[in-house]
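Raw record, unedited: C4-type zinc ribbon domain-containing protein
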Amino acid sequence: MQKTLYALVELQEIDNRLDELRAERGDLPLIVEELENKYKEKKGLLEEKTQALKTTKVRQKELELLIEEAKAKLAEFEEKLYQVKTNREYDAIMAETDATKTKLEESEDELLNTQETIERLEEEIKQIESELEKVAGELEENKIELDKKLTATAEEENLLQNERDIILKKTDPEIIKTYEIVRQARDGLGIARVENGVCGGCFSHIPPQKIVEVRKMEKIYTCEFCGRILVYVEE
């Protein structure tokens, strides 16, 4: 058990240093992640608006053709009116004329709305492109800064991680699990040294008899107040 407890002490020291290295990077990883998500979101919105603009312009062309056709038909109907010989023919042409005029008005109204939509979409696309360019610049700047920090600590982190992996392979998984749970719940500290009769983690008083047992290092003891694994290590 002594080897296990000493291994936990070493593991805690490794984790402390890894935490320090990660802290040096500050909020950069989170900032980069948020900017990447924002960039993807803006990119997706830009593609959506661009496709909508393309579809709307296609509809604009269709409406312009419909309007031309309707106007051509009205001209034809007007000429036919001079050639009609019966009231029935006259009524038929007037009915077609009225129907065509209705379609023409509807097409012209839709065309007007379509043109307004195109103007709005073009303005929105311009705004999104500007925002996307700004986000891309911020993302690149923060990525460069993060890469610098990662490069500066990469070698040490790899060495520490390798040492950590070795300890994990040699230590009881259940004990490691307990250590990890407590570490996550207690600000990164899963191990606490007994010093001057108190827990080195929460500074709560530890009964003398328990200190004696902890000092023997024959089994796992935890602090009754903070739950950290207690160890007694001579400097």
